[in-house]
């Protein structure tokens, strides 16, 4: 059950980060941070409770963190560039 919740949160996080990139706001960025934190927290929990596939888990986790971080950084940059020109 935790695995299903983890996957749902991770997919929602990726989707929401994409949404924030196209429509950035400070509130949406905070929600994106929260979803990313929930995904990482549940991933760490799963890693400690089911360490059988540790290498695969860490590789996918690093890929996820890289994608979401890039999306958040790009969204922050886009948000600051639009607010500084107003």
Question: Strands, helices and their partners?
Answer:
Blueprint: H1 2-22, H2 26-49, H3 54-84
Helix pairs in contact: 1-2, 1-3, 2-3
Mind explaining what this structure looks like?
It is a single chain. The protein is mainly alpha-helical and 86 residues long. The protein has one domain. Helix content is 88%, strand content 0%. It contains 3 helices and no strands. Helix 1 runs antiparallel to helix 2 (26-49). The longest helix is centred in the C-terminal third of the chain and has 31 residues, at 54-84. The radius of gyration is 14 Å and the shape is elongated. The mean pLDDT is 89.
User: In percent terms, what proportion of residues is strand?
Assistant: under 5%
What is the helix content? over 70%
Distance between the termini: 46 Å
Judged by helices, strands and strand pairing, the structural class is mainly alpha
Instruction: Indicate the overall shape.
Output: elongated
Helix tally equals: 3
Number of separate structural domains? 1
Low-pLDDT ranges: none
Number of strands: 0
Rg over CA atoms, rounded to whole Å, is 14 Å
H and E order:
HHH
Mean of residue pLDDT values? 89
State the major sheet. Answer: none
State the main characteristics:
mainly alpha, 88% helix
């Amino acid at each position: 059950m935790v695995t299903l919740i983890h996957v749902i949160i991770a997919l929602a996080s990726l989707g929401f980060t994409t949404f924030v990139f196209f429509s950035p706001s400070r509130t949406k960025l905070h929600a994106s941070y929260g979803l990313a934190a929930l995904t990482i927290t549940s991933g760490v929990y799963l890693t400690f409770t089911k360490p059988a596939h540790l290498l695969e888990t860490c590789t996918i986790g690093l890929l996820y963190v890289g994608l979401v971080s890039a999306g958040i950084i790009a969204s922050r940059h886009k948000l600051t560039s639009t607010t500084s020109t107003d």
